[in-house]
Structure formats: structure tokens, C-alpha cells
């Protein structure tokens, strides 16, 4: 066994409390190098009487490593532990003190989890596990009240530009809630709705007031109420990294300079404020002088923003916050933000915009989730006409699963596209078959899926601003077959708990082969998903021990032959099988 590949640390996603009775442990080994891993555990105060062994399962693999996982239930909330690893006749022990050929005397030098404190648990909103989100850019969804259209509003359906507006508003969303309910989504995420001069509204002027071109605070209350009446949750977008140029405190600094009472509300490197050669002498989002960065370490700024976060949760009863540019705000702020929001609503869902590995925000003291762009990048590359094979794809997805604790994986915000990326149909070369493969994977994978408005009726578009086209409401111009497909897959996910919280594992994902078989399984149901990511008709075969399988979408019985299931798939086709357990 290759010793230098062994890795474990008693913290982060390697050792964490899943609930108040259960500790999850993970160990890394070289790929295909170790045959068995067992966690040897006991109470540090009485090892002999509490000793227990927990066989670990190979939960995932990537290019270089295997990842083993096990659930430990320490009887007194605390546990010391080491790992016994075997390959052939060789057995090794891994403890905090190192690796050896003999079991060290417990518990000195063993890993230690001192105690599972319920107050320290990384808890996530239970409803988010079964949510299917729908993202809306309000100006582009529906114009329900032409009377509040801003000056210069362009006719619906025109070419989106960086600065044009089309009159979409909150009333338009209310008018089309039946569309969302019929589609089957049970949560909506709205990009910013507060007072702002732009169409995107990521340059906030007043954080406590709905922009008049969208409606008012009372209409937002009505929208939330009508959503809740339909069983739909509502998440708003918070832009706390920066404000807009017209934000009154920033205007005060522009006017009074260093004499302004708000001078320390921003990160300023010189007075007067100016932009020279495209570079402001104050920190901003990117280098946009119209989006000055807020100093969230300033107690006044911090309290102002925390009051805003609390207001919309308590007074308007929104169900969560998506946090823009979350990785550029200090961790102290986010820790206090979580306390305020969770006190207002313990089931509020907090999603940060972080595009990279986000573990330091996802340990239970800051966010519940992040926008999982690494997931969308893997999926979209594999299901386009790229050279990525199933082996590489499964390695990438498996590595993502091992980044975070299980409770985070259960609510990670998975998406295929958003207001910041090209449309998914455009990304896959406008091949609807490839789009369907992406959506099948999204809706049968672990995490909280999100659909970008209009994807379900075939909207296309390149990078911003083209990805922010107006929603198409003319049934003659909608792809109704695609809509029915989305509706069918959403219903399947919502009807089967195994597709929400069941274990995920690749069963077939080979080098040089762009076909896949993977499973989702819990105590009650077992799903097998078969995918042919090639342009040829193919037959995929896999050993099956039982003959009680059905097609999950048609209900048709599907029988193995001599213990082998043979599934014929059309080019870029898929099939979903399931059976009930017990």
C-alpha cells in the first residue's frame, strides 16, 4: 500500500457530526490500492468496554485516490479512533501519530473527536433538501403592470443589452405563479429587487425598499404570501459586498470627502474619490466605480446590513438569502449574519455565491450552501460534444462530493446556468437531446437543483447580457415538448425520496467510454440511471440480482436476463429504472 497517499484529519469534511448521534469519518487512499478500511473506535476513558469496529465503504474515487466513508455512533458522544487498512496479506494502522505495521496502544496518539455538541452541529434547512428552485430575473420574466415601467422601457422580447429594460415586475411573477406550480418547482430565487438604477439591480441604492419599477414592499409581501399558499418558498438576492454609486452614504462621501460621517463605510485609499485610467482610488466590485465596496468590518455598516437581512425575513417572511460576491466579504460578518437570520427563521436557507471550493464557508457557522458552478462546469463539459469520457466525468463529480459534509451535499445549490452564464441549451450546441441528459443528471443527483427561467421552454442565449432574454409566453413560440420533459423529471424527483437523499454512486464510468450507469438508493427505493452520451445506438449491460425493476417514467416492467440487465439506448438517450425495497 502506498503510505504517502493515506490522508485523514479530525476536522472539516474528514470528520464531522452529521447529527447529534452520528459522526462521519472519511479516509483517502491511493486509487485501487486498498481493499478494506475499518475504523477502530472507543471511548478515551474506557476503550476496552466501548470498543467497536465500523467497516468503511469506498464512497468515491477520482483520478488518483479512493475515498472511504463510514458512520460512527459513539455511545457517549465522544470517540477516539484509528483506521485499519488492508490489501492482500498486508495490514497497516493509521492514527494521528502516523502509519505503522502494528496496532498502537489506544488511545494515545489516536484521532479524537472530543464531543458531539448539538449547538455546534452543521444543520441545514430540511425543506431545502427536497426543493426544486426556479431562478427569475424580475425585469425579464413578465410585465404585469405597464404603469410602473421606467422611462425608455423597450418592447417585450427585444435584444437584451447591458442597460436596457423591458418592464418585468413582481406583478408579472404573481400573474404566472400557476406556470411555476404546474411545472412543479417549489422554490423561487429572485435576483435583486431593491431600489437601483440598473436592469440587474446589483448596484443597490435602498436595501429596505422594492424598486418602484418592480412594485413596492406590500406587493412583495403579496408575492411571498401567494407563493407560500402554493407551497413555494422565496429566496431573495442580497448584495452586501458593495452598494450602488447612488447609495446615500456613498453620495455623502463624494460630497464631503474625508469629513463625511460615512467615510469609513467604504474602503478608500485617497481623497477626493476618483477613477483614473479605469482604476478607482476606492475598492469596488471588480473595477466598476459605480459599485463601491462596503466595509463590513465597520460596526455601523455591519449593523445596517444585518438589520436589512432580519427585516426581510421577519417582516416579509422570505425563506432565504442568496449572497452576491459572498467570498469577498469577511467571515466575521457572515458568522453574525447567520446568527441574525437563523434567529429570525431557523429554517431560512443561506446560499453564498462562491465559484470555487467553499469548505471554509460550509462548516455550519456561515452558509448552508453555495452556487455549485464546479458541478455545472463538469456536467456541461461532459454532455457537450467534448472529449471527456465517463471515467473523467465520474472522477470530477466524485471529487466534488468529497469536498463537503453530507448535509451540505444534500442542499448544495446545483445549477446548469444562471444570469451570469450562457444558456444551457446554447452551451450544448442547441442539441435538445444533450440538454435532456444534463437535466436528467441534475434532477437525479444529490443536492438542491435550480432551473433558470425559460430553460424549460427552450430559451437560448450566449454570455451576459444575452442570457437574460425576456421570458417567452407565447405558447406557439415555446417548446412545449421540452416543457413536458422538465415537468416529468421534476415530478419524478419530488415523488421519490431516494432521488433527494439517497446515496449516489457511479456503477459504470469507463476510460474511453462516454456511457454511464449510476445509482441512487435509500432504505425504501433503488434507482438506476443509464445514459448514452454518444451519437450511436448502444446497449449497456450491468449485473442485476433481482427481477423487480420498472421504468420509472413509464411504469413498464424491465427484466434482466441470467442476472444481467441489458438496456438499449438511442443516440444521446437515457433510461431510469427503479424498484421498491423491503
How is this structure best described in words?
- The chain is α+β, with helices and mostly antiparallel strands.
- Among the domains are: 3-120, Immunoglobulins (Immunoglobulin-like), CATH 2.60.40; 172-238 and 299-370, Glycosidases (TIM Barrel); 242-295, Oligo-1,6-glucosidase, domain 2 (Alpha-Beta Complex); 499-580, Immunoglobulin-like (Sandwich).
- The strands form seven sheets. The protein has an eight-stranded parallel beta sheet. Strands 3, 4, 7, 8, 9 and 10 form a six-stranded antiparallel beta sheet that branches. Strands 23-24-25-30-27-28 form a six-stranded antiparallel beta sheet.
- A hairpin with a 3-residue loop joins strand 5 (57-61) and strand 6 (65-72).
- The longest helix is centred in the middle third of the chain and has 16 residues, at 299-314.
- The two termini are 39 Å apart.
Task: Name a few traits of the molecule.
24% helix, alpha+beta, eight-stranded parallel beta sheet
Amino acid at each position: 500500500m502506498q503510505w504517502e497517499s493515506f490522508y485523514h484529519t479530525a476536522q472539516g469534511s474528514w470528520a464531522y457530526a452529521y447529527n447529534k448521534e452520528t459522526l462521519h469519518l472519511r479516509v483517502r487512499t491511493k486509487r485501487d490500492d486498498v481493499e478494506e478500511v475499518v475504523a477502530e473506535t472507543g471511548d478515551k476513558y474506557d476503550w476496552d468496554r466501548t470498543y467497536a469496529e465500523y467497516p468503511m465503504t469506498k464512497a468515491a474515487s477520482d483520478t488518483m485516490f479512493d475515498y472511504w466513508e463510514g458512520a460512527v455512533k459513539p455511545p457517549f458522544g465522544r470517540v477516539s479512533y484509528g483506521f485499519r487498512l488492508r490489501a492482500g496479506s498486508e495490514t497497516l494502522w493509521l492514527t494521528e501519530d502516523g502509519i505503522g505495521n502494528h496496532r498502537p496502544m489506544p488511545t494515545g496518539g489516536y484521532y479524537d473527536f472530543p464531543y458531539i455538541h448539538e449547538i455546534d452541529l452543521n444543520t441545514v434547512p430540511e425543506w431545502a433538501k427536497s426543493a426544486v428552485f426556479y431562478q427569475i430575473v424580475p425585469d425579464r420574466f413578465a410585465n404585469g403592470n405597464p404603469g410602473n415601467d421606467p422611462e425608455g422601457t423597450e418592447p417585450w422580447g427585444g435584444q437584451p443589452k447591458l442597460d436596457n429594460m423591458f418592464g418585468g415586475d413582481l406583478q408579472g411573477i404573481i400573474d404566472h405563479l400557476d406556470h411555476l406550480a404546474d411545472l412543479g418547482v417549489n422554490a423561487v430565487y429572485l435576483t435583486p429587487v431593491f431600489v437601483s438604477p440598473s436592469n440587474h439591480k446589483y448596484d443597490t441604492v435602498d436595501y429596505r425598499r422594492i424598486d418602484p419599477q418592480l412594485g413596492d414592499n406590500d406587493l412583495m409581501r403579496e408575492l411571498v404570501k401567494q407563493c407560500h399558499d402554493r407551497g413555494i418558498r422565496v429566496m431573495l438576492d442580497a448584495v452586501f459586498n458593495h452598494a450602488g454609486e447612488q447609495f446615500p452614504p456613498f453620495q455623502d462621501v463624494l460630497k464631503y470627502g474625508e469629513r463625511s460621517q460615512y467615510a469609513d463605510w467604504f474602503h478608500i485609499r485617497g481623497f477626493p474619490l476618483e477613477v483614473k485610467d479605469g482604476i478607482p482610488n476606492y475598492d469596488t466590485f471588480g473595477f466598476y466605480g459605480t459599485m463601491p465596496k462596503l466595509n463590513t468590518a465597520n460596526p455601523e455598516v455591519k449593523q445596517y446590513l444585518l438589520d436589512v437581512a432580519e427585516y426581510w425575513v421577519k417582516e416579509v417572511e422570505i425563506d432565504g438569502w442568496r449572497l452576491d460576491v459572498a467570498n469577498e466579504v469577511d467571515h466575521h460578518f457572515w458568522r453574525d449574519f447567520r446568527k441574525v437570520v437563523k434567529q429570525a427563521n431557523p429554517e431560512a436557507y443561506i446560499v453564498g455565491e462562491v465559484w470555487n471550493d467553499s469548505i471554509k464557508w460550509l462548516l455550519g457557522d456561515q452558509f448552508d450552501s453555495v452556487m455549485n458552478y464546479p458541478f455545472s462546469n463538469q456536467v456541461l463539459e461532459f454532455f457537450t460534444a467534448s472529449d471527456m469520457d465517463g471515467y473523467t466525468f465520474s472522477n470530477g463529480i466524485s471529487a466534488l462530493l468529497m469536498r463537503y459534509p453530507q448535509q451540505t451535499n444534500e442542499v448544495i445549490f446545483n445549477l446548469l446556468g444562471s444570469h451570469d452564464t450562457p444558456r444551457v441549451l446554447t452551451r450544448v450546441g442547441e442539441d435538445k437531446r444533450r440538454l435532456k441528459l444534463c437535466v436528467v443528471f441534475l434532477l437525479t443527483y444529490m443536492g438542491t437543483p435550480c432551473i433558470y427561467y425559460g430553460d424549460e421552454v427552450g430559451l437560448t442565449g450566449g454570455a451576459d447580457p444575452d442570457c437574460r432574454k425576456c421570458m417567452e409566453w407565447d405558447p406557439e413560440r415555446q417548446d412545449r415538448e421540452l416543457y413536458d420533459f422538465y415537468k416529468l423529471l421534476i415530478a419524478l424527483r419530488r415523488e421519490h425520496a431516494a432521488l433527494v437523499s439517497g446515496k449516489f454512486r457511479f456503477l459504470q464510468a469507463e476510460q474511453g467510454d462516454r456511457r454511464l450507469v449510476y445509482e441512487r438508493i435509500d432504505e425504501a427505493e433503488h434507482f438506476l440511471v443509464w445514459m448514452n452520451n454518444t451519437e450511436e445506438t448502444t446497449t449497456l449491460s450491468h449485473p442485476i440480482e433481482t427481477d423487480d425493476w420498472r421504468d420509472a417514467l413509464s411504469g413498464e416492467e424491465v427484466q434482466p436476463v441470467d442476472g444481467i440487465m441489458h438496456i438499449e439506448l438511442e443516440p444521446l438517450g437515457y433510461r431510469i429504472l427503479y424498484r421498491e425495497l423491503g
